[in-house]
Amino acid sequence: MNIKILTPEYVVFEGEVSSVLLPGKNGEFHIMKNHAGIVSSLIGGKVKLYANSIDDAYAKYFTKENEKDSVFSYPIKSGVVEFNNNKGIILCE
């Protein structure tokens, strides 16, 4: 599935991931391939991408959670996510 993470200043990430874990108002939620369409607000926390690797152009924005799994995190203050047809856009600050 394709995920794009945008801030007012720059594109944080654009590429293929296997899933994404997001900080929602009622707790974290996981979006996986073929997830139903969703629009949701996000609170402060970490956006975690589950991907084999991240392009070097975007790697500077992410922290690798651990060496065993391919989980990359990006801290946000708030935001919105829209996901439909295996494409997601995360607008955040």
Describe the structure.
InterPro entries: ATP_synth_F1_dsu/esu, ATP_synth_F1_dsu/esu_N, ATPsynth_dsu/esu_N. Residues 1-54 form the ATP synthase F1 complex delta/epsilon subunit N-terminal domain. It is found in: Endomembrane system. 22% of the residues are buried. It contains one helix and ten strands; from the N terminus they run E-E-E-E-E-E-H-E-E-E-E. It is mostly beta strands and 93 residues long. It has one helix at 56-59; strands at 2-6, 11-16, 19-24, 27-32, 38-42, 45-50, 63-64, 71-76, 79-84, 87-92. Helices cover 4% and strands 58% of the residues. A five-stranded mixed beta sheet has the order 2-1-10-9-5, with no helix packed on it. A five-stranded antiparallel beta sheet has the order 4-3-6-8-7, with no helix packed on it. The mean pLDDT is 95. The two termini are 23 Å apart.
C-alpha Rg (nearest Å): 12 Å
Share in helix? under 10%
Number of strands: 10
Query: How much strand content do the residues show?
Result: over 45%
Distance between the termini: 23 Å
Task: Give the strand order, joined by hyphens, for the main sheet.
Answer: 2-1-10-9-5
Low-confidence stretches: none
Domain ATP synthase F1 complex delta/epsilon subunit N-terminal: 1-54
Keywords: ATP synthesis, CF(1), Ion transport, Membrane, Transport
Organism: Chryseobacterium oryctis
Family: Belongs to the ATPase epsilon chain family.
